[in-house]
Design a protein that fits this description.
Chain lengths: ~425, ~425
Amino acid sequence: MAVQTVATGSSTVDLGPAAALSCRECGHRVPLGPVFACEECFGPLEIAYDFSGYDTEELRARIESGPANIWRYAPLLPVPANVADKPNINPGWTKLVKADNLARELGVTGGLYVKDDSGNPTHSFKDRVVAQALEAARAFGFTTLSCSSTGNLAGAVGAAAARAGLRSCVFIPHDLEQGKVVMAAVYGGELVGIEGNYDDVNRFCSELIGDPAGEGWGFVNVNLRPYYAEGSKTLAYEVCEQLGWRLPDQIVVPIASGSQLTKIDKGLQELIRLGLVEDRPYKIFGAQAEGCSPVSTAFKAGHDVVRPQKPDTIAKSLAIGNPADGPYVLDIARRTGGAVEDVTDEQVVAAIKLLARTEGIFAETAGGVTVGVTKKLIDSGVLDPAKTTVVLNTGDGLKTLDAVAGTGLTATIRPTLDSFREAGLA
Amino acid sequence: MAVQTVATGSSTVDLGPAAALSCRECGHRVPLGPVFACEECFGPLEIAYDFSGYDTEELRARIESGPANIWRYAPLLPVPANVADKPNINPGWTKLVKADNLARELGVTGGLYVKDDSGNPTHSFKDRVVAQALEAARAFGFTTLSCSSTGNLAGAVGAAAARAGLRSCVFIPHDLEQGKVVMAAVYGGELVGIEGNYDDVNRFCSELIGDPAGEGWGFVNVNLRPYYAEGSKTLAYEVCEQLGWRLPDQIVVPIASGSQLTKIDKGLQELIRLGLVEDRPYKIFGAQAEGCSPVSTAFKAGHDVVRPQKPDTIAKSLAIGNPADGPYVLDIARRTGGAVEDVTDEQVVAAIKLLARTEGIFAETAGGVTVGVTKKLIDSGVLDPAKTTVVLNTGDGLKTLDAVAGTGLTATIRPTLDSFREAGLA
């Protein structure tokens, strides 16, 4: 297995097959380091790999005999070869649930699967991306793991840093709901409330990175973003391996910044290039909530640019009004023959209940968005019900209980058989 | 693999190696059926197996090549051989986390592990037991899955029934917190509030089982209890397999009814008898909250009987004041050289935070009880820090957020670097 060691400044970093950072726009390459924007054109930097020397069947065997978490794919990630031996929270290898009951309700005949990332350690897909950022932080000698967050990410960073023995410092709007504060604070890191909204928090974090006070700090979704984002590739790897090393025909992915969808596409392309799956067409569909649907709006209008929106939806984990990777999402949806669609908050709630009622999976609002969009796209004939379809659930319903707060008792009775019968329950 | 088919009344049931029900007190055997108390002496019935014809290495290989859930142990459970092909929520094979940070804080040198059952589909160990009850319900032709519950069990039953396509009807006290009602209701089954407390709910359920209105109903923790309880054996199997087919020296288990602890002991004994682990001494320790510590009280007093208590603790999932299996727990703790200990609610909260801060695991109050008791037993010299020790976390902190509601922001600042420095965070 080729392991690339790259010099950055005075130190050398070992991030496995990660060879350099490469600009997605202009292709300009720089050595691996804690940078995220191209110095030439300000485009986003992403990881360029050296996969040369990989034998397909050797690689497949190595993956299959690897641990039951994302580190089975270490040869394809920006992490050192011994990553599985280090203390981290080992996310991934979540269930791919064959959703036959849901398929019947939606009229899908070609096989419907839910990739259920609520099974991750802090119950969202964020554990996957934070795990990559943690390795980069270690490689660059950072001692504090940080982020701006309004929810899932705060918990993922707090948990990962705790286990790794790093300091964590998470910034959130000071008036966040108490439940979310508790989830973020319980891991014992610094949790700092910023007097302002989420935009103010982000702006402050960018200032901190440029200041001496931020030295030694790895912001998982800012200066470690190129590494962080690669974690989403593992969703693509797992789906294909769990399907028996086969590409799904159709995959429905939620869109917040759009990064997850673009990295899933990158992951699928890598599997094809490495010969791990047969090269045949697949379609990627993006899912948004109507109250924050800048990419869906652009897709339907045939635009290449995404006009920012002010979010107003219960799907808060997807509520990014100005999604950085929006244009790439449009490109991928169009290139693969997919689409981007949105659903109302009412449809989100109905979809959460539909998934729970049919498959026993309690999804976060983001999962309601993907299931709702899947239903809408089938009803409108855009998704082919005769094809193998994978729907992502990226989070846990326990984190967004408010969305289904209307759900309650079907009856209240006295503790007697007569009362039971009167209620028509017999 | 020997599969036993047993005639019960007019039907035959295939529950794999389960051969009969046997009274734990008097040994009286009856055919497999939806009964839970001995007709001779009213003792509890449990499953008697036919494991004859199992070759140790063949069995081990079969388990190791099985699915990454409890069904890898199907040859040792009261389920049909094809159980993994049926729609169920496939719990188990949760992480055994090597807790080196926690070990350092507690002074454990012999290896400390947390068996983290928050990774189950509905985030508690209840998924393991409900999965067994579901197979029994199918075998006996029941069409409704039911239980009395105040929390974790309601969600586990609702989810399992939804996925299996069975009706569910769960009974809860009518004044339960709204969050718990939502978690139980979202799966779409009947959720019935009983005007009364948990005792009233239980009494009503027992009445319903004896009434024609309850025909076709499987109450997972009443008439299906012998099957249900066996699910806890899988915790023992997994711990040993994950340790490399080795018994832990010491294991710390929470006590509610005591059933889990007794079945873990049963599971360990089976592994020894089947030759899957080396036969050497192990100690089982029971953990209770001080506010509901009938077993711990009896253990310390040297009693063989357990005097009921009125529960008053934040560890509500353990708050059974009159634990049915209490005497068996006392027996096992004494026989193995273990102990039963309890901790205060303050110690429970401190232990939840300790586990989160050191290992990034956010435990339910029951996990705070086991970690707290582990610390107390090490401090008092009862647990040997030089031995391999496994601590169970049976649930998820997201379900008992109130317990750590005092956790919050470490600082609040304005979105400026000056404010950041003033707060001493740099």
